[in-house]
Amino acid sequence: MWDNVLSTFKQTLEKAESTYLAKARSFNCTDDENVTSLAALRKRAWLALRAKIDEQTADTVILSKLRSHFEERFRYDDNGVPRVWRPDDDIDGAFKKAKEQARTLDLIPRYANIAPTDPSLEFTLPSEISDPLTSTDEFDFSLTLVIFTETKSIDLASRFRKDADAYYVEAKRSTVSSIAQIPYWMYGVLVVLGWNEAMVVLFNPLYFTFTLMAMITSYFIVKLGLTGPLLQVSRTVLTEVQRQATDRLRDHFSQPVLAQPVRASSVEYDEDSDYEMRKRRSEPM
């Protein structure tokens, strides 16, 4: 992989240098100026290549490549047809086989360092020390050859294993969902046990008419595509009823019932009654 990248990079760099030298002759540039300009050109070209490599080896991109490399061997058969897992399929064996054949984790060390297999394709640049006077930043060429550090490689491998395990669990769940279904004999039991209730509905005019009207209404609702709006209206009405009931209950329990003050009954003085009582007391028995 790195052989192709560096080979293309060197060819492009040679074309750029030839173009520069052809234009430099027309400006009568000195040899020292050409050496300095070519060194700057090589450095900028290498940094541009390094930026492109960083873009293609970002975490999301590299994990996507690893997942695609694994999916081609686990979720597809040898003919490229997607697999539909059945309960009798050997998912464990297919999972182990995909991990062994794919050797997906071997891609991480391959991306970790820029190291061509052909020594003639190696590219080197002199390192530079930062100089505040010339506004030159520190440049260590050996560090630019490292794409993934050891810690980063371990982290990527761990994250990929989690994704691979998720594919395995998904395949297991698909088989479980296909198994977890109602057996056919259960429908016969429901028919036998509910036969009397069905006869009551069929032979009762009121129940039969109500059932027929409900079926016709349901048919037209589904046929006209009114299921969604009807559910939305029902949900809105129920929400409003719940809100009104909650407000009424909150108002009722939030206001304490004040006790009625006891009014003192006024006693009116009756002069005639008092005179009559005194007269009766003064009379002899």
TrEMBL record:
InterPro entries: RHD3/Sey1, Sey1/RHD3-like_3HB. The lineage of its organism: Eukaryota, Fungi, Dikarya, Basidiomycota, Agaricomycotina. The keyword Transmembrane applies. Keywords: Membrane, Transmembrane, Transmembrane helix. The chain crosses the membrane at residues 182-200, 206-226. Residues 265-285 are annotated as: Disordered. It comes from Rhizopogon vesiculosus. This is Sey1/RHD3-like three-helix bundle domain-containing protein. GO terms for cellular component: endoplasmic reticulum. It comes from the Eukaryota. Residues 1-237 form the Sey1/RHD3-like three-helix bundle domain. One of its GO terms (molecular function) is GTPase activity. One of its GO terms (biological process) is endoplasmic reticulum membrane fusion. Pfam families: Sey1_3HB (PF20428).
